[in-house]
Amino acid sequence: MATLEKFVTRMRSGDLSGALEMVDEEAVWQEAETLPWSGQWRGPDGFVRLENAISAWAEMIVRDYAVVAAGDVAELRLGLEFVSRKSGRRLPMEVVEHYTVREGRIHGANAFYKDTQAVNDLVKHG
Description:
The chain is α+β, with helices and mostly antiparallel strands. A 6-stranded mixed β-sheet has the order 2-1-6-5-4-3. Strand 5 (about 90-100) and strand 6 (about 105-115) form a beta hairpin. About 35% of the residues lie in helices and about 50% in strands. The chain has one domain (about 1-125): Nuclear Transport Factor 2, Chain: A (Roll), CATH 3.10.450.50. The chain is globular, with a radius of gyration of 14 Å.
């Protein structure tokens, strides 16, 4: 849990390079198949490409979060707000990410959005 807490703190403070140092080269980030940024993104470079893909459509603001131990994974509960690049419309969204963390390294995450249809609507219509 401490690793994920440190990762999120670095990301929120804008220390992307510090956060990426914590990501294993073999890490896999999995996103819902129905989203524009769907699929698997691999390694630290994949994480950056994923962040850029999301950013092309919307600014993603982390309003609050909690890290919870969940057996073999660490769960990151996010209160996000997506802001459409097209219209400026704001969409609050709950996202839960299950992270695999071993020996202080992040080996990937699987993201679960509360409402992928609402995200798609924001992306498509602004």
